[in-house]
Design a protein that fits this description.
By secondary structure, the chain is mostly helical. It has two domains: 36-174, Lysozyme (Orthogonal Bundle), CATH 1.10.530.10; 177-208, no CATH class. Helix content is 75%, strand content 0%. It has helices spanning 2-47, 52-63, 83-89, 96-114, 117-126, 128-134, 141-159, 163-173, 182-188, 191-207. Helix 4 crosses helix 5 and helix 5 (117-126) packs across helix 7. The longest helix has 46 residues, at 2-47. The radius of gyration is 25 Å and the shape is globular.
Amino acid sequence: MRILDLKKTHLFILLLVTLVSLNSVSFAQSSASKTVIKEKIVKYSLENGVDPALALSIAQQESKFNKNARSSQGAVGVFQMLPSTAKTLGINPYCLNGNIIGGIKYLKMMQDSFGSVELAIAAYNAGPGAVRRHKGVPPYSQTRAYVRKIMANYNYLKANPDPAMIKVAKQKQSPEVIQIPSDTAIFLAKPAIADAFVKMNHTKQVIE
């Protein structure tokens, strides 16, 4: 009887440990994917001339960085792109990279059109037509609340950069690393050849 109870106890503990481990892995994967998404947003923002703090604030409000987010209006992904808008931009909104690039490009278009962060945010939410008709932020309670929340987060990130912003900025400042195939590395390991390669690379940098 005692042996059976002991076996039951061991099985219960094993099951509990397994459940805890699975939850930990799930949480880690979720956190990791969110971090990767943020870094992609920062990278593509810099490449397209958009303030990463603004792009992150839009994505936070739109989907909380959930690549699988779907709205009742049919908007999808991190930046809640409508398929019709995505089509005009020539991107696939169901692809993570496409969704992020599309959202940032659309935000850039709104900024270029209105020349104001607040109006760009309003246009992202209510559409550029509504902003033009009202000659400013439309008097819709939902849009005005949207603009307030994003501006608050945007100003916060300007003063307190997200870790993703810091990481990508450091990567941009780091010198480019030349990847050398393993067979080439063995060849270059010979002293005379290695010296020649270093001199050649140095000459290339001087010329550039």
